Amino acid sequence: MTRHLEPRGRRVKVLATLGPASNSEEMIARLIAAGADAFRINMSHGTAEARVALIAAVRAVEKSLGRPVTILADLQGPKLRVGRFAAGGVELVAGAAFRLDRSGEPGDGARVSLPHKELFAVLRPGARLLVDDGKIVLRVEASDDDVITTRVEVGGRISDNKGVNVPDVVVPLPALTVKDRADLALALDHGADWIALSFVQRPEDVAEARALIRGQAALLAKIEKPAALERLPEILEVADAVMVARGDLGVELPPQQVPPAQKRIVALARAAGKPVVVATQMLESMIGSPSPTRAEVSDVATAIYDGADAVMLSAESAAGKYPVEAVAMMDAIAREVEADPGYFGRVHFADVAGGGSTAAAMSAAAASISRTIGAKAIVCFTITGSTAGRAARERAAVPVLCLTPRPSTARRMGLVWGVHAIVTRDVASFEEMVEKSKRMALRAKLAGAGDPLVLIAGVPFSTPGTTNVVHVVRLTGQELAGR
Do 44 and 180 fall into the same domain? Predict the structure, then answer.
């Protein structure tokens, strides 16, 4: 990467899902121009070859633009589904009995197979089974090793292979299926920057995935199960980031409980200093319409006011009629919210845990100094990106310029609030660090003559985990002349 584009002019990042409507290099380039900072590849869909081609397309556009572009590979996770029906489906009536069993025979109006033996041992009377995104509700009356007897609470048509959600128990299923493990290996082999882990229930699920990733990518835990909400602080300890995945979360929780759950997830992630993405149905109407509803705009704005690191588009950019317009709308909403004089007061609602480390203290000091002296940017020299991440969690009112010799580190910053990453050769001395920070801030148009910058770095250089220097510099006419 030899060219450095200017920062977006906003802090929150836009994560866009790629799909049939956006799988060409031309469309990917248009989405980046419209405001996309990162791209989600849904590993639930398509062939392995198609996913490899999609990653290659993103990297080709990245190379042509000279701007780090983030790729998040979203693993499918364990999917619970009923079996097939002899007639393709049946109508269930409220109050009727309905049985789920392990026979494997085609279903009828009285029963259907459920090919997930793990469920039979954990379901207890009173637990709910939510079928087809909650359109049908079954209440468990009895369960043994072979049969689950239920009563239909909310009826409707149930058909072949419809999904099942079980919100009232911790399902003893691994977060990584055989398919997920193959998809994970593929994503890592082709340079995905983030891995999203679906249907996390326990911190052990995250630890298992982290062991397989072996530091090759950052790990994001999707919070979409009530069980995950109950253990969120522990999950945050082992994950690099979390996502408010409101799709399944909105199925397993009553709708009115989703907004408070979102607030809690964002607040706890902010307090832990971990990036948080808000996702699902943010601009849903733009799948078929060139403009969103006012309620959708308000929804996106609320997530930004709450301090989310990124907001995500799903079908809007993957399969909708207006993918570029949807990204541009996200960008416009973010800019308007961040221009609100009250915005920075709102994003500091949570006290960020410092952790007692020297690096955390340096980051907090840099943010404070930048406010006091009116600095134009905080410049971080970093190998792993942890210094830039710590600076970002302070939610300073100035951009964080991340200078790193590693393209992989720069790419991971695409989900981190307020960070503009540039790949550049590492520095070998304090003097070189000062000169490069001034030169790069000038090229990125973050500062001009007479403007102060706050630098964060570690000495000795090129040694991860040694953040121990905060330094103030000021641009002079000499840098302008040498530009």
Answer: yes
